[in-house]
Amino acid sequence: GPPPKPAAPPSGSLAGAQIEPLPPEIKVVLEFKSGPAATRLTKTVTVIGRAQGVADVAVPDDGQVSRQHAAVVFAEGAFFLEDLESRNGTFLRGERIKRVKLDMLAEFSFGSYVARLRKPK
After folding, report:
1. 38: helix, strand or coil
2. Phi-psi category of 10—alpha, beta or left, where left has phi over 0 and alpha has psi -120 to 50?
3. For the stretch 41-67, what's the b/e string if a residue is b when 16 or more beta carbons lie within 10 angstroms of its beta carbon?
4. How far apart are CA 22 and CA 111, in angstroms?
5. CB 45 within 8 A of CB 70
6. Domain boundary assignment for the chain
7. In this structure, are residues 80 and 108 in contact, taking their beta carbons and an 8 Å threshold?
8. Quick check: helix, strand or coil at residue 14?
9. How does pLDDT run across 88-111, given as a tens digit for each residue?
10. CATH number of 24-118, picked from 3.40.50.360, 3.90.209.20, 3.40.50.720, 2.60.200.20
11. pLDDT digit string, tens, across residues 14-49
């Protein structure tokens, strides 16, 4: 039979949208409090998780991070944080989120990691 399809994001998901390069004037860095190096975002969908080669930003497995845990999505001129049905959840200001607008410098967490978006220095 045909090969199995990769698991699609939940329906109505922003992360399931067509992935395109970010507009050149959108300059944003994904920064972690500790652990992974800061990463310049280059696409409209950036997947964070522990799966090397699957996640755009792979973090060391701390036992709480899903293979594809969360996505930072640029849509309608703003950034959103979307949980990709992770087992242990994605949190913004301590509240578990499904999808939420993500302002610059707003800290979000998943597993033992804390991250935020900021403008490049």
Report:
1. coil
2. beta
3. beebbbbbbbeeeebbbbbeeeeebbb
4. 27
5. no
6. 24-118
7. no
8. helix
9. 999 999 999 999 999 999 999 999
10. 2.60.200.20
11. 777 689 999 999 999 999 998 889 999 999 999 999
